[in-house]
Write a structure and sequence with these properties.
Layout (H helix, E strand, L loop, with lengths): L1 H20 L5 E13 L8 E10 L8 E10 L2 E8 L8 E25 L5 E20 L8 E2 L6 E16 L4 E10 L19 E13 H7 L1
Length: about 230
């Protein structure tokens, strides 16, 4: 718990430092994107989802490349099966139950982008690096038609929730068409460990999402408004 508080405090300090450092920048931007994601850490469950990513950049200039990002993933339920057993001679000794696992995933990160290439049409290619992030993941397990009075699942999966540090990176291609630039982003994030120990290993792990999203940059001028006053 103390480590968790230290991680959150550290990210808050870094965030406020960046906001203060770039408070006088001429132009800021808000980027919003969505698409599809696939978990790379649980191939047996095939966790797919719809990610929504929001980024705030304090300046459009290359020298001010830092940004803050919030990312939420609407993950579709993963499906598997579990074996349940009974000692009741009047019932089948073993039955196979359908297992559903619902996941929620929320991540806050601090990062910076590196400009790699710009073509003649002013389309550009960037690499986003996010070395500091805090991710919260929760898993809710349900066994369909589970007769708990007569059957018992051996070593069942259980609900789990944890928060921890993560890192991520993304390749971004910008299509410059005006004030609302379009972009395509391929984003990958490391998994986070679970916060509590279990008596036996779970069949699922923390999620490491690979996301492909399409979105827009919205620019606004902060300094101009202050100058007019």
């Amino acid at each position: 718990m103390n480590n968790m508080k230290n991680n959150i405090t550290f990210l808050i300090i870094v965030t406020f430092f960046l906001l203060f450092s770039f408070s006088v920048c001429a132009q800021s931007s808000l980027s919003v994107s969505s698409g599809i994601s696939k978990d790379l850490d649980n191939p047996g469950y095939s966790f797919y989802g719809i990610p929504v990513s929001v980024q705030w950049k304090p300046s459009k200039k290359e020298r001010a490349a830092f940004f803050l990002e919030a990312n939420y993933d609407f993950v579709f339920a993963g499906k598997s099966s579990g074996n349940a057993y009974t000692l009741n001679p009047a019932l089948p000794q073993e039955v196979i139950l359908a297992e559903n696992i619902r996941v929620s995933l929320l991540t806050f990160s601090v990062g910076f982008h590196i400009h790699l290439y710009t073509n003649k049409k002013n389309n550009s290619f960037y690499l986003n690096l996010l070395p500091v992030g805090i991710s919260t993941q929760s898993f809710k397990v349900n066994y369909k038609n589970y007769d708990k009075e007569n059957y018992e699942v051996m070593n069942p999966d259980v609900n789990t929730a944890a928060t921890g540090l993560v890192m991520s990176m993304a390749a971004v291609y910008n299509f410059h068409k005006g004030k609302q630039d379009e972009f395509l982003m391929l984003h990958i994030q490391t998994p986070t460990g679970f916060g509590k120990a279990n008596d036996y290993p779970l069949s699922y792990k923390s999620i490491a999402p690979l996301q492909l999203t399409f979105g827009y940059h919205f620019y606004y001028n902060m300094k101009k408004e202050n100058d007019e006053k």
